[in-house]
Design brief:
Blueprint lengths: L2 H9 L20 E5 L5 E5 L2 E8 L5 E6 L6 E4 L4 E6 L11 E6 L2 E7 L1 E6 L5 E6 L7 E8 L3 E9 L4 E6 L5 E6 L9 E6 L5 E6 L5 E6 L4 E6 L2 E6 L2 E6 L21
Amino acid sequence: MNILAKICLISTLTLALGAHAEKLHFTQESSTFVEILSSQYIATINANSPDKVDFYTKNQDLINSVSLDWEANHAWRLSKNYLLVASLKRMPDPEAYNQAVLFKDDKIVEHFSDIKNVYTIPGGEQFAIEVAPSNDDKHTHLKIFDVKKGFVKEGKIPRTTRYRTVFISPDLNSVAISPFSTDSSAVFTITVYSGENFSSGTTYSFDKAPIYETIPLPNDLVAINVDRRIAAMSKFKTEWTIPNKQISISIDVLKQASDPNYI
């Protein structure tokens, strides 16, 4: 890998992983979730009325109020004018409804049900839904959607209680489940799944060094936080490492995420 490519990789390591961050957690009764969707629309959800989404102009004029059939407890801004709002049966509300809706501007364009979790994908145009388990409790069933095209692909990977966060590569060809927290959780082996329906797995380990994060990239590259040092892997070959200890890794959520030289 040339020097310029390494500089691009290292310089973007400090970017926040906003594409995977859950946006909506009410901590106070009076709190309000606010997300700027574009220069035209601002979406808000008030803790006192979480069963509706209000849309305002940049001048704070109310242009639409959309009622939901349930109380929202999670929301994500996707690409420029798309917003995903969900009621997930997990923290902070184990009695939620496992439902979600996709907004374009101030209008609902898609409904989703039987959802256990939602995972956004770098670039903002796609997202994955983890289907609520039925009889098969040994697998994590993922369905991937494009905000403009709808359903794209699906697949199953083995379920595990040790890993919590699903990361999907920008080219949608590989997926990994990382530990729950970079602060306290670690594992000693990690598997990245690829191929048809994510049926093929490549397992990584580093002489019992703890693994904190694993983020699959395009073209079979994988970025791994090993003992708080960053390693970029191509199958079983180490492409490069950052020797000094780091805290976490993230990837460029812009269009360049389709280029494996950007993390």
